[in-house]
Every structure is written in structure tokens, then in C-alpha cells.
Batch of 4 targets.
Target 1
Amino acid sequence: MQIDIEWEVGKETSVPYEKIAREIVEEAADFVGCPYDISVSVLFIEDEEMHRINLENRGIDKSTDVLSFPMFELESPGVFTEDLEEDPGNFDPDSGELLLGDIILNWDRVLSQAEEYGHSVERELAFLIAHSMLHLFSFDHMEEEERKEMEEKQEMILQNRGYLR
């Protein structure tokens, strides 16, 4: 499993963000039963940069807490079929890992939302990564039923690693 983590925030932190990112990426892959070794990129940025990326990529002129950029879409969320292997572009030619996608986290929002929701920064960070990983596995929350399913899965991933409210 390859997890590339980049910190592009102008200040340092004592929060073990790399450890949390690795734990939750691994737990999410195990949770959905991903049969492949995966490659994921996790980028930490500040609010202003997130605003720019959100506008540039989604046409939304405001910041957000996390963005997910999947490399492909599964026909059914979390279901890995053989047709995934038919496109060699889905896999790293050197390592054979499934190129799952990119996660971009707004560190300013991680901090402010942890305070707003009354839980730890570690828990908020774990939540946002779990949420984003589910998007990379083609889960969504546009419909009420999808939202409930995704929330349940997020909570289970967090509980499995001890990130409780």
C-alpha cells in the first residue's frame, strides 16, 4: 500500500496527521474489502488554497473541508469487479497497486470543525479521511439512503480504529 502524504500548510502541528492518515486509509480499504494493494495521495493545505481548488475544479466559489478526486468510478460502491483490471491505467505499472485517487484536506477547517463539533482534532481528521476514502470507493451522499449508508460506514471505520466522539 502506497500512501503519499504532503503537508503544504504554513505552520507545523503536533497532531500525528501522518499516522492518522495511514490508519484510516488502511482501515477504509480493509473495511470495504478492497482486494488490491492501493495507492492514495493525501494533501494538507490551507483555506485559501482549498477555495482556489474548489473553484477551479468544481466551479464552487468557496472553500470546503475536504475534496476527493477518484481515479475511476466503480459500477457499484465498494464492489470490485474484473472489469477494473481491463483498464491498465487503473494500476501503477511499476508496483501493480490500484491507483485509487487523491484526498485534499483543508487543515484550517479540520481545526475549526473539531472545535465546532466538540471533539478532538484527531477525530475530525480521521472522519474527513474516512469520508473521502468512501468517495474514492464510489460511495456518495446525494440521496438520503446513500447518506445514511455512508455515515454508518464512516462511523464503523472510525470506531474500528478508536476514533470516538
Target 2
Amino acid sequence: MEDRAIADGIPEFFKNSVVLQTFGVNYKHPCQEVENVVIPPYIPPEGVRRTLGKAPMDGPRDIWVFFRGKMEVHPKNISGRFYSKAVRSVIWHKFNGDRRFYLKRHRFAGYQLEILRSVFCLCPLGWAPWSPRLVESVALGCVPVIIADGIQLPFPEAVPWPEISLTVAERDAGKLDAILEHVTATNLTVIQRNLWDPDVRRALLFNDRVQYGDATWQVLDALSRKLDRSPRTAKVPSQWASDT
């Protein structure tokens, strides 16, 4: 389906627009051939606040590595051959028997509480490089482990991604235990301290009423800089900034 869409090309009206898209990559792709702003996927901020109200973000975390989501493992399924470029299948086969890895394949309404209990949250690609769990991990203080080659992350001017997350190459998914052991023994405390900055969490959440520095504010800032073609601070209408 993606190959067909690529062959069809970008619709003309998109070429005269600035597209807000969660799909961001650093390699050649039609989605990157139009003016665009990469934005985070929407996560209801009320749910995040309710979860944070049940336990402090810097409280004890008894899950070392967490992942809950779709994992195709049967090679005869079309999903098993193509979904996630088999990265999730590698993770499941390699670490499902490791007690340090909390891997679940079924939906659970209270999964945000599991994130809040976790040190590392795996964010492997699915059909696309991005996933809502990336935002949830940051918002709930779990170090996101991004496994998606060439991904372009939202709002790099506001979110210091190299300082709050880990990036693992898709080919190294089977080495996660050694990689995360090394981080735990070296700079985990620094990453967590950076991750708990409330400005970082604010920048990735779309509030019902725009707040200074939140995701909607970041969109307006990015659009204003594209309009001017020079870096500047967006002028947010005073009625929007009343909650700051």
C-alpha cells in the first residue's frame, strides 16, 4: 500500500500547504518532499495527569524493561514477515523468557500505570516509525528506547531527545539486554533527571486550552518560523497564554 502511494506521488494541493504529520523520517520519502512539521501523536493529557496522581514520577520502578503491544511472530502471516521489519518478533523471541523484560501482547486499560512502574519503555517501529507510546513514556518518566532507523522526532528545538531517550539500531534489537545494562551502570540517573523536566512533558501534550510551551504552542512556533524563514519566538495571543 505504501509503495502504491509513493508511486502515485504527492497531491498537488499538498504542495501548497504545510502538512502537520506524525510521520517523520530522515531518509528520502514523499512525505518529506512537502513543507511539513513533525508533531507528536495525540495522548489525552487528562489521562496522563490521572496516572501521575496515583504515584510520583520519581517513585520506585520495579519493571526494568516494558513493552505492551502487537507482536507478530508467525512467519506465514503477512504481518509476521513485514510488520515492524520483524524487530518486535526478535524482541519477543529473544527476551520473552527474561524476567527483567515485561513483555505483553494483549491490551490492558491500565497500561499507563505499567509505564509509570518501568525504567525503560521499548518504542519499536510498527507499520510506521512513530508510536503513541513514545509520548506516553516521556510524559510518565520512563526512558524511551527508540528502535526505528531514520525516525525524525517532533519539536527538537524544545525536546532534547538525545538527553532523555535512547536510540537503538533495528539490527541491534537482539542486544537490548547488554545495551540497557550498560546504560543502567553509567548514565541512567542523568537521563532520568533530564526526562523529569516538566517543560519536556508539556511540549508533547496537546491541552484543550493552549498553554505556553505545550504541543499546540510548539506547532504555532514551528509554523511561524517557517513563515518568517528565520528563527524567532512565536507570539502567542494573550488569551491563549493566560494559563502560564
Target 3
Amino acid sequence: MRDSYIGKRIKGGGYAIKGAFLLIKHEHSIQVQIGVSIIVTIAGFYFDISKIEWIFQIIAMGMVLCAEGINSAIEEIADFVHPDFHSKIGYIKDVAAGAVLFAALTAVIIAGFIYLPYIFPNYEW
């Protein structure tokens, strides 16, 4: 069964779960984003947001966590390949961090669309 299609998928899933736990345990940025995700989830229950708002919120949270995870992997690879400062490695790391910024800004905009009407209900949106 280990070499079967299903066996390989199960083994791959195990690696993914291990990777997720490693991210949570060792990466400060992921820990911060999980904290933000918990706060926003609590806000979702508090404001009783709609199903479509939940969908957008979950997509936004997942997008940021994925971007942070990929950024962490890129940084680890870059540091492994070239531990000393190198302008190309710096460029690669900066671009990866920029992708996280795009994801985070998008998530903030989505949160604004969801929560501002609940926070300021009398404002004309």
C-alpha cells in the first residue's frame, strides 16, 4: 500500500501536516497571522457576518497564511544556498516578502468591506 497512489497521497498529506506544524512552531510571522485570523474569526461570530462574507474572510486568511508559508520556505532556501549576503538573494527575499504584503493588503481591504458597515452602520456605504 505504501507505493500505491493512495499510499503516496497519505504520505504526502503527512508531510504537509508536519510542515504546517513546523511553520506554526518556528515562524513568528505565521504565529502573528494566526493570531489575527483568530481575532477576525471571533469578530465574524460577534457581528454574525453572512455566509458570503465568511467565504471571503476564509479565502483572505488562507491567502495570507499561504503567502507567509511560501515566503518562509523561499527565505530558508535562499539562506541555505547562500548564507552570506548577496544582492540576488536579497532581491529574491524582498520579492517574496512583497508578495506577502500584497496578500496582507488584500486581506485588510476585504476585512474593511466586511466589517466597516457593521462597525459604522449609520454611515452611507
Target 4
Amino acid sequence: MFATYLIGLREGLEATLVVSILVAFLVKSNRRNRLPHVWLGVGLAVALSVFFGWLIEYTSTALLNTSKQRELFDAITSVAAVVFVTFMIFWMRKAARSIAGELRGKLSDALAVGAFAVTGMAFLAVIREGLETALIFYSAAESAAGGAGRGPLLAMIGGIATSVVIGFLLYRSALKLNLGKFFTWTGALLILVAAGIFKYGVHDFQEAGLVPGLNNHAFDISSVLDPSSWYATLLSGMFNITPTPSILEMVAWVAYAVPVMALFLRKPGKPTAPAKPAATDVPAPAPQRA
């Protein structure tokens, strides 16, 4: 449940910050009459995201007839979720400083066009977060406990609710939060979650019979890590750490987690100063006589 709570908190706060930037820009520029159009775009994005999440679940449970088809579907969605998580983490780290200015510029252009453009701009600004949340949530919930129970869904809703409260307090200047450190810590945790999702995807490919080695276990720590214990449930739900993983599962986990974490935690290099133009030997023109 903590994994899905973290997903809801991280993605929800990103979407909340985007909306707060748009709202603050309209309020400060005395364009409050356009606020309903922004909220309409946000509402449409949320509705489409919920529908997308329902469609994924419906496809898995109602449209796929055999266990092999469901395993393959879960494997594909897991890999897609890992791709989205990785892109989102690195994109947010790169665009965090410039996203406010870019959003204000796009909203200014939309205001010049009309109400429909404002709604469309707000929709596009939020829909990416919503679709990512739906896909990542489904994969994380499936990898944690086969999607059983309402716990993961309630945890994600709790994470989104928490992000809305934090975003509102930030907007009202009632809360100070180091967003750089917040996104760094949550990004590192999400990389570990994504590694677990990737491991689960490889396991599903093996279950579907497309990848060999399902019964070739890397190790067996079931005597130490009791699957029925609370800490085993926590490790399995958060990072998909299981007592008897296959060799290929562990290779996939390490192959993703180690390089991605190293790249994410690496400090970006300082921008180099522009080179000064080389001096030329061309003599200055002689002053002209009057």
C-alpha cells in the first residue's frame, strides 16, 4: 500500500503544482473569468484518467480469457509503467526550474486564442500525470498482491488527497517545502518501486512461457523471510522482494535499479561558460579626417 500511496503522492503533487501555477497566473493577471475553463480542463483530464484506469482493469479481468493472456498483458503494462516512471523522474528533475515559466507562456498564448484553448491547455497539462498514475498504479498493485483488495486503491487516493492538501498550503504560502529534496527522495524510492515492477514484468513473461527460467531460482530465503510475515508483505508490496525469485528476475532488478539510481543521484555538471571570441589581428580602421 505504501508504494501506491507514494505514486499517488508524487504524481498528485506534480499535477497539483501545475494547476496552482495556472491558477496563480490567472489570479495575478486579473483573468479570474478564465478560472472555470481551467477547472473544466482539469476535470476532463481527471475523468479520462479514471476511465483509462478502469479500461486497463476491465481489459485484464473481462476481455482476456486465459491466464496466459492475462500474464502477458500484465507483463506488457509493467514494462510500459517502468518506461513512464523513468521518463517522468528524469524529466521532472530537468524541467523543475523552467516548468513555471513554460506553463505561464503557454497559458498566455491560450488566453489570446480563447476559452477553448485555455481548457485544452489545462487538460494537456494535467492529462499526462493522470494517465501515468493510472498505468503505474495498476502495475504496482498487480506486482504487490495481484491487485487483490481495495487497499492499494485507497492508499493511492490517500496519496492524491495528501498532495492536494500540500499543494493548497503551498499556494496559500502556509507551508514551506523544499521541492528539490522532496522530488529527489520520492524519485529514488520510485526507482526502487519501478525495479520491483520490472522484476514482476519479467516474472509474468516467464509465467506466459515467453521467457525461460521460471524455476531457476537465484536463492531461497523463505526460511528467513516468511511470506506470511508483515515485513515480507512490506518488502514484497514496496519493492517486490520475494523469497524465491528466479535468476532472470534478479538480473532484471539489478540491471534496472543500479544504473538508473546512479544516473539519478549523480549531480548534474555545472554549465560551462561560453567561450570568449578569439581576438583577431585585423587592425582597427584609421579615423577618417573631417
